[in-house]
Structures are given as structure tokens and as C-alpha cells.
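Appendix B. Extra example for self-study. Work through it before the problem class; the solution is given directly after the inputs so you can check yourself.
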Amino acid sequence: MKKTGLKVLAVLSALVCLTSAGCKNDKAEALVWGGLSDADIWGAPATEKVYQDISTGYEAFRTDAQVSVTAARGEYEAGQIIVTAKDKDLKYEVSAADLTAADGTKFPAASIEIFHEKYIEITRNWENNGMPLGWYPDALVPVENIKQVGENVIAPNQNQGLYVRFNVPVDQKAGVYTGSIALKIGDESKSIPVTLNVLDVEVSEKTHTQSHYAVNYQYFRGELEQSQSMYEKYCEMLMDYRLSAAIPMEKVTTEPEDVEYYVDLAYKWITEYGCTTIDVPYGAGVEIVNGKKYNSIDRATFSLYLKAFAEKSFETGYNMFDQLITRTGTLIDEPHGKKDGEARVQAVATAWKETKLQVAQELEDDDTITSPIKDEVVEGIRELIDVVTAAYSEVYEGYVETFCPGFTEYDTEASRAKYADQERKWFYGCINPRSPYPTNKIDDTLLSTRVVGWMQAQYDVSGVLYWTTTLYQQGAESGYMDIEDYYGVAERYGKANGDGLLFYPGKRYGVDGPVASMRLEAIRDGLEEYEMLYALEEAYGAKQARLQANGEDISFDFDALIASLTESLYSGTRVSATTETFASARNALLQLCLLQSGADTYLADFADDGYGTASYTFLVGDGATVKVNGETKTASATVTDGDGKEYGKYSFDCALSEAENWLHMQVIVGEGTFAYDSYLGGKVQRIDAAQTVAGDFGKEQATPVYELIQDASTVDGTLTGSIVKLAIPECSAKSAQSVRLGGTLVKDIDATTGKAIVHIYYDGSDEPTLQLSGSYSLDTVYYVFGSTTLKQGMNEIEITFPSGRYEKATLNYMVAIVNPSSKQAEPARDLYFKDLILYAK
Amino acid sequence: MKKMKKIGSISLALALGASAAAGLAGCNKQPEDSVDALDIYVLHKGNGVQWCYDMADAFLEQDWVKEKYPNLTISPIVTNDEESYASGMLNAGEGRNRFDLMFVHLDGQLYAGPSGSLEDLTQSVYYADVPGEEGVKYIDKHNDSYTFINRYIDTTDASKEAYYQTTWNHGMDSFVYNETLLNALGKDVPNTTDEFLEICEYVLNINDRPAGVYDKTFTIQQAENGYWNYIFPVWWAQYEGIQGYKNFWNGIDENNTRSPAIFDQDGIEEALKFMEKALTYETGYIAKDSMSYAFMEGQTVFMRGNGIFHANGDWFDNEMSEIAQQIKDEGGEASNYVFKIMKTPIISALGTKLGIDDATLSALVDYVDGETTTAPEFTSTEGYTKDEVIDAVKEARTIVHSLGPKHAGIIPKYALCKDPAIDFLRFMATDTAQEIYMKATGGSCLPFEYNVKEKNPTLYSQMTPFHQAKLDYFCSTQYDVYTLPDDSAFPLAQYGGLTATYDVQYYTTFIEEGHTKTAADFIQETKDTWTQDKFNTALATAGIAG
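Solution. C-alpha cells for the complete assembly:
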């Protein structure tokens, strides 16, 4: 039966040898493997994707073959080695060794993990962000496991990324550690230099954010094992990434042993893994609203679990309700516009609220409970939140307290204000929103994913939700279908690549549990940066309190501090970060952390005057020397905190007058020098009213009457210089009060312009909305820059110019529309144009 | 049943459904698939299939065809009324789908594109000459609306021009009316929707009408029938203007930016408000038992005099030709009824928008139709000039909705007999083909420039009053009829999921007894659903980036 046996073997080989580009088992003997000279070895940052099949376009970030990473203590941070095969197949092996600092301190090899980047094909870019079609790196398989299945091979003219991740223990001594990674190609070896700069900044082991990243949708199919044990492996892996699966059991029931297991495991996750979010199960029931039945929670189930958690809390003395939430999203997910949406929300929210209050009351009235944390637990039940995936709507007032809208709802100040009163803020993304809003999609940048952590810090959003991490099936009209290759098929649901897919099944590579993706790494990286910002804000808050306690009139504007760090990363929630701007922002953040912890220095205030001058105020611990751009500065005042510690107040301006403008600050304390380097942007150009002509302000739907007023003080005594008066006539309901701004005002706006500030004086008191948009050469439809409310007096309006495909387009003119959504007649108005300030990138 | 003509040695074959073996024509055995045998499938819809047989006959008789394809035959044409048959065959793919040329009812965009299964007709058909008409390109003779509709949507590059389908019907949906009964009432064809409702109200209040006659103002077909929904976009576009209508589907608001403010278009709500007024069960304008009719039954009841108005399309005449003959043979009053299709009444809200009263609007309609030679005197209370008002009314008058865009003529990429199939499509642009089609369908048209009243008055005179009325409109020298593009012609609808309203069940909602959902509710629900987030997703999915 030899022939049959061989046939079977061949079939098995074919089965093992899947569609992966690297699978060449059956060709192995026929290949002539190349050596080092047949490879181009180079380096790349972990913030970039190097495609398997695209050989160009990496000039901006490509380095020599090296890995150089800066990390805080308690942080994961990575770099990439890229091996590009020339015209021969290559087989590689790679291993790390201990790194050593100058004083002999070791950074152990065991804390350096190297992963083989597996590629997945993108055949359609659904994000329309200009990223190419081709093979994207995503799954990270440990190189040992890749080698075991013989996939440590690189086909000619292909790139192979090696993801080198450093897990810096929180107690690692700060310092510069060097060493090498051994890369063997064929029979030849090369040492890749490695530099790990560990800063004396600590990333808290405790996670201060909450999250709900589900493990569901047939996760077990790829693992060929459906068990509570496997399910827990996935959940535990998520916790390694500072995320919460939130549901400890794969199957949730009301059986006493299951309830006990659920609660006990939740306790373990919270106390041993630092899990920050656990769902309270609520079962499935029916409620009647206005005589109609609606699917709702099951009050008995919800009550059962609330009491079980309370009991566990009493037993252990730990209030688990600090980490508990509910998410009735399976019942009332995005109810807007859906059939009976309002009634369903009412049904679910009412039952949920009544049940938790009833349980709280029962416990409160139960005198047999003598736990010292009884009051805390009862309060915790009353304060339990229900995270509802929906944008705010007044229709749900009184029912929904914790809206979890999409990222777009946090894009503008006005929109963010709707959630200002929420005890805890949440947001989410999935198929939508699309780029330039943050996404976890494969055909988007890693920075899009990573900056969410920064947005959370900036907008005080404590929770992020993601519908699933294990979409091991493919959505279709008729339901979900099995897929053959769990490492292939990027588009699994709803015209999105990689949505719902942050893990890959480890079974295929002998990994007991899931394999993570580069996108998951980016999420954790962002959450670690959140922890740095969180700790920094805590430190600033504590210092401010001590200063104020001593009567000092000092307030740290931490919002301004974060804004100064993030303005090159995103605007609102629209991401524009590049590797370069991100590195600069992260570096500035690390420096601020070091300044605070090492030099007792605080960035007290930061402001841009809207005319290209950045102003900074630092409080520096007494006894330090402060230099700014090489010049020694003197404190303008001294303040003292409640502990008697003195601080010098250093205020200075940085004019954006050069092609590239930097703030290089040094704080020298004893033998230590602490730096703060912030790239401020390019040269600022001011276009004054006096430089304009009538033709610069034209008709869109209204024809403005132009008048250059040489003495602006005649308009308002506080104004100086000249100003342009635009008399905009009234308009009927059938037209818009809109004018064009062109000529002098736009001729210098190009791809190097990052943003602009326009100063418009308004003498009315009706506070109309002013929308600014732009007509670009690549579209007949206008691009909306944004809207603002015109207050009486001088208004400063910031415009951020779009990146991506717009960078290659010409801005023909801008359009200013008053009350764009108005369907009524508008009265005549006078707008006064003062100037336009262009900020170069 | 009309006698089917034989084509050479071919006889008409009955086709099975999509589950039948690929390419087989039911009981009759098909000749082997070959490069010399043109295999045609044609869907049997309201205008019948005789046109296809006649067209095939004529095609084979063309000298240029005989010269180019001396061995060409046409296999028995396969036909059925199963809309899903075509998609089934296309999905079956090469080796199982033997058709070289298919006249179907489906969204060709789904099968088109460089990686699709349809032949690219851009150069071979659209930019080719019309046979026998030197210097006249197919695309030049082709109706501009349909050229737009048939253009392939490439979401990666909107500037690319490609066509993968042609259209084999160009008609209109509107109100069919019983001219005899309308005249007996002393009423004219309504120019505006207010006039339409006045007639409905008048009929409702007639006291001495004979039992069984006039007790229903108009007959509505079965409850799920969407014929009123077909006319809805016409009223909407009349109000907003053609560009405004297209702007909606391109996601462009009144400020020339892309935003969910597109749902602020009043035209949508005004169209729904008229429909609500006309259709509300309790008002009593509709036949209360019409919800139980199947569509043929409803149409027959109407032809027997139950009702004045009946939403339908220009295929009505052909579709009801046998019933009409039957009624005629029976004798009686109904045998003398004359049915026509009217130009869609102009939505009266347009007059309000333009600042004129309904009587003025109606008079302006007469003027733009050429019924009067002088425009009425008026002053717009909304500040519009006279020319602006007249232009708006004239544009409104040109707008029609047609099911034509769904009638796709396609060639599978793998067709064996491809060149003759391509030439067949080109042939369908000739004047000869226009006349063949009109004759076979009793007066329906193909989407090409062809004025039958001028070019073949004899043929025109042989048509029924129904089709003459329609052709008077289509061939008018007063204006060029504009067929609204189907939603699927716009990427934001095709790929982004954009719809006029979240819930599109207007007809079934309004005719339901005790309905509570109003036109305003439809709009509000839509605005609540289409958040900025959802809108941005739709833009991105449609390949329209911000």
C-alpha cells in the first residue's frame, strides 16, 4: 500500500502547508538557500508596517540593521529587524542574548522576545487612507514556533519582519543596555546591535483604564478546542495586554457552581491579574412597556449575580464593585433609529436600574451582614454602571447614564460636552468609524490604534469597548460561515479588514492559547502611555494641591500640557500621527516624566498666543539651573508648597520664526541633567488685514462688501492695527450666508502648512455658528475644516489642514458659512477679518 | 397568447428555473455551445419577449451580419419570468452558463468590474459606431441618463469610465388613468398633486354613482406592490431639482459639503406628505379591498372601471393586452374605456417653495407642456424671478422614474459567441431596432434618440392611445425627458448603504388602517439613524474619502 501511503502523506503535507507565503516544506530539498550576502538586513520602528511584497517607500524610517529602543520601567516596547531576500530563498534563525549596561547590570535575554511577523493579504483598502494593497504584517508568532513548522523561510524579493519586544521589569535599573541579536541566514551569522535605553520612569503595573474586549464568535474553532480552560487562556492573554475580556466564563449560567466559579475567577482576575473590568451577568428576560413585550434582562439572574459578588466582597474584604459593570449592549446596541429603539431602552434600563437598587436596598436592610465594607459594597451596587453603545440622545435621558459612543463623538468640544457629566466615560470603534478616526484595522496605521490611549488621557475617557477579538468566522448575509485559513481572510465582517480580529489561534504553531497581533501590541503601547500620563497628572495634581495649600495661586493646566503633546498626533479624534511626530511626542512625554520625578520640575502652563509665539511656564525645584535653547534663565518668582519646598517660576516665550523651531530646555540638578525637547513647528506666517484686497473675499452665495479699516480701534477700542470689515447682506431661507476667502489668504497654504488660526471680530450678540470649509483641487465638494460659535468680540478659530491625499492637492479657496444648517432667512451681518496665521508643520 | 415566430430552424423553448442544468432550455434540447451559435436568454417581464425574437430575426437578416458571420445561428432563445435565474446562471460561472447574451433584471454592478464576470463593453459597444449610422457612436445616440446609470462604479478611481451593461427598456412609471371616466366627470388630467387630490375628493363625494362604479377613486394593487414607491423619487426630485436629487445620492448637502445634512432636503418629506394624504386608509381615496388583489387582478379590476387612477408603468398596456381584448369581446361600458399614462403630476409643494399658488403652478405646467403659448402672470413671494420659476417647473416636468435601469443587457466574459453578442447590442441602437422594439411591445422604447412620430408616423399611428400619450411626452419638442438614475448608480447607495429614508415602506405604512407613522416620523427616524459616524462609514465604504 506504499502508493496510498505516499498519497496520504502528500495530502497531509498539503494540509499542513497552507496558503502562507512562507510555506515551502515540499520544496525544501530542491531549493538553494542563500546566505547573508543574499539578504538586505535593516531596521524599522515598531510603529511602522513593512509589507512583505512592497520593496519601496520605507526611506523615511528605515535604519541600518539595529534595534534601538527607549522604554520606561514596567513597559513593553519593541523594534523591528527586517530581512529582505534578494534573489534567493533564505532560511533564518534568530536569538537574543543578555544586554549589559556600562555598570554591568544585565537585561536578561528572557525579557527579549522575538516574533516572526506573519503576513495577511489586503485586497481592498476599506479605510480609503491611501495605504496600499498587498501583504500586511499582523500576527506575531514566536520564532521558535515558526521554526518548528519550517516557516522560518523568506522567498526571493520578499521582506520578513522580526518583531523584537522588550519586556522591561518595573524594577529594572535605569540605564543604557547594549548587546546584540544573533541572526543566522543559511550558515552565516550576523550580530545585530541592540540598544535598550531604560529611563527612570515607571509605568504603573496597575491599570487605570477599563475595557471590554470580548472573546467570542467561535474563538474555539481555530483552536479545535472549546473549553473553559482555553477560553481562560484567551482572557488571560488579554489581561497581559492591560485589557479585559470582562466575562470570566465561556458559558454563563445560573447554576450555583457556575455562579461560584464565575465570581471566584473574577476575584482572581481582579486581585492577581489586575483586571479592571468584569461584567455582571443579567440573563435574558422579557419586560412589558406600553403593553408591548421587549427582550430585556432577567431580573432574577441579575439579582443572583449581584448578590454573589456582594457576598464574595464581604468574604474577602475587597469591594469587587470597583471593577464591575454591566453591558446590556446585546439588548440595546445602537438603538437610534431601530425599531422601537426608545421603548427597548426603556424596558432594559428600567429593569436593570430597579433590580440593582432593590438588591442594594435588600443588602442594606440585612442586619446579618456585618462586613466592614458593607456600606461600600452597597454604594458600589447603587453606583454600578451600564455601558450602552450609543451616542448621546436626549430621548434616552433618565434611562441611559453611561453612553458609549463611537470615537467620532469625541471629535469636537461641543460633542464631548454631551458626556461631561458622565461619572465614567467610554467610547468605542469597530467597523466604523473609518480612518482618519482611530481604528484597529489591518489596513490602517499602528499609530491609529496606539493614540487611543492618549485620547483617553486627554478626554478623560476611562473605558474602551471592542465587540470581539476572536472573529474566527466570516460574516455573510445568511449568518457566519467557517473559514479555512485562520491566518488568511482579512475581511471577516462588514467591509473591514481585521475588525474583530486581534488574535489568531495558536494551535497551528504549537502555541497553547492565542497568538497576538501587532495591533494588539499597539493597543498596549498606547495604554502604557496612558499610564504615564495618568501618573504625571496625579503628580501634578498632588503638587498643585500642596502649593495651593500654602496659599500659592498656582494651577497646573494639565489639559494644556496634554494638548501640547498631542497636537501633532490628532485633532479631536482624527489621527494624523506619523512615526516622526509620535516619536517626538513620546519623547516629550518621557522627558516631562523625568523632569517631574528626577528634577522636581513641572510644566505649569503652556499657551500659544495665536500669533506664533508659544509661551511656557515651568516650576523648577529650587537649586536647579535652567537653560532654554542654550541660554541660562532666571526665575521670575519663587513659590513654596505646603512642605516648605521652594520652586522657581520660569516663564519664557518661543517665537516660531525659523524654518524649524525647537524648545530645548535643560534642568541641571547636581550631576544630573534633565532635558525637555519639544519640536514646536515651522515658521509662522501672518497675513494681516492690510495685506488683503477686496478680491480676496468673494461671493459664495452672498456677496460681501469689503472695507479696509486702517484704524481698528474705531471698531473696538481694544483693537489695534488695521481690520477688514465684511458686510454680508441678509439672505433668504433659500440661500446660505456664505462667502469665499481666496487669493492672498490661501496662496501660501500648501502641504507644509499644518494649521492656521484666523482671527475674526464679531460685533453681534446672537452667537451664530461659523463653518469653515475648503475647496480643493481634487474634489468639487468642499472639505469641512470645522465649525465654531462666534462670540461677541475677537474670535480665534483654529483650522487643521487635512493630511493624506489632500497634501498633494491645491487649496483653491475657503468658504465661510454662517449658520450652515439654518433653513431660515439670515439678517445682514458684519464680520471683521483681523488676520490669518499659518503654522508650518 | 401571441404567436411566436420561428427563427430559422429554432422554435421557442420553455425554460426551467435556476435549478435546471445550465443552459438547457427545458424540454427542447439545445444545440452544442459553439462560437457560431448565439445563445440568448431574455427575462419575460411586462413588455414580453417577442421583441427579442423579432430582434434576433432582424439581426440575422442584416447584410453586415451575414457578411461578418456567415455561419452564425441563434439557438432557441431561452426565457422565463424568474428574475433570479440570471444571477443563478452568472454565479454558476463559466462552463455552466452557456449564454452569450442575457437580457435580465438585475444590478449589473454586482457582476461588473475588471475582476467581475461581465464583458467590458466600453470600447466594443459604447464607443463603437452604430451599425449603418456612420459617425454616430452608440454613446452619442444613447440616452444620457442611462449612460450615467450604466457606468461602472469604480470606488478606487471615480474618474475611470467603463460600462458592463446596456439597457433594454426605457419607460416611465406614473399614474395610468381611465380617460373615459375622467372625462365623464368633467375633469382634466391633474397637473399638480393638489389637483390630483381634488379629483380624489370629488369622486369620494359623488352621491349618485352607480354601485360598483366610482365607488373607488383608484385601485391599488396588492399590498406589497411598490408602484407608488416608484413615483416617490419623482416628486422628491421635482421639488429639489435634478441636481439637488443627485447631490443627495452623492452625499452633498446644501453647502456643498458631505454631511448627514442631506437628510434635511425638504423634497423627501414633501413627497411623503403627499403620499400620506393620498394613501391614508381612513381618507377613503383608495379601494379598501385592493390590498387583497394580486397585481393582475388589481389591474383587471381597474380596467373594468373600478377607479380613475392606478399607479403603474408604461408596460401596462402590453401586459393587459389580452385582458383588454377579453373585456372588449364582452362588450359593455368597460369595453369602450380608454386608458392612458399621464405625466407625473407636479408636487404642489414646489409651488409653495417657489412662492406661487397652485393655480399658477398648474397654469405654468400647461405652458411648459406647450398647451398654452403664454406663461401666466405671477410674482413669486419667495423672491424667485419669473425665469427661475419657469425653469424649475419645466425641469420638474421632465423628470420620470423608470424600471428601465434594471433591465440590463449583459455578456458574460467567457461567452463563446462573444463578438456576435456584442454586435447584437450595437444593432439594438439602430433605428431599425427601435422600430422592432416598439412594434413588438406596442410602443415601449429603448433608451436611444429616436423620434417615432417623425421617423415612422405610420408606426406611431398604429399604437394604442396609451403608448401614443407616452410617446407624445417622450418625443416632445418642449423638453427632454430625464430618467432619474437608479439608486444603485451612486456608490454611496450601492456600497455605502444610503437610502432616502431609514424605513422605505411608505406605501404599506400609509395604507394600513389606523397608521400612526407620519411623513415627519419617517424623516426624524432617518436623521436619528444617520449619525455623522454612520455617514462617514458610508462615505469610506463607497470610496468617497473626506
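Self-check: The longest strand of chain A covers residues 188-202. If your reasoning did not lead you there, revisit section 3.
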